[in-house]
Design a protein that fits this description.
182 residues, 6-stranded mixed β-sheet
Amino acid sequence: MKIALTVGHSRLINGSYTSADGREYGGCIEYKWCKNFSKQLAAQLKKNGHSVDTIICPEKKFTSSKQEKPHKLEIINSGNYDLVVELHLNAASPSANGCEVLYISDKGKRYASAIQNQLAGIFRDRGIVKRNDLYMLNKTTPPAILIETFFCTNKNDYKKAKGLTKRRKIAKLIAAGIQKAK
């Protein structure tokens, strides 16, 4: 399969991030973790025989998060992809925890379910969620899923995902879910 792997959010021209920052609660910055993690996930997907293009918004170029949408959609919708996987982390109160995968299409639901089943071995299973209000799910030509891997505002969730070894393990689980849903 040809997969578009996208990193949610961006780093703006002023240096700020458009994503959640859980450091105050013992967690991490969503954008930074997802950007680092995209390398492990892309490597694992390629190891499984997929073609992968990682799409990250250019850093310190945009002045607003509104510029992320057209940048990503132009690449995705002209790229002849079979699947779009957008990486995110959830954020809420420090007690909120777990993983969930968002989808809109029937095909997306199949991938979301298979990935969620894999991630639930590490993080609390929050289930899959159908969302029709997210541009990455409803404006892409190929089927898309959005993975909320864990809560960046939860110290215990972050401990399960901190460091290269743990990121590699999570990448293997997501890649295995994609293989099962193919």
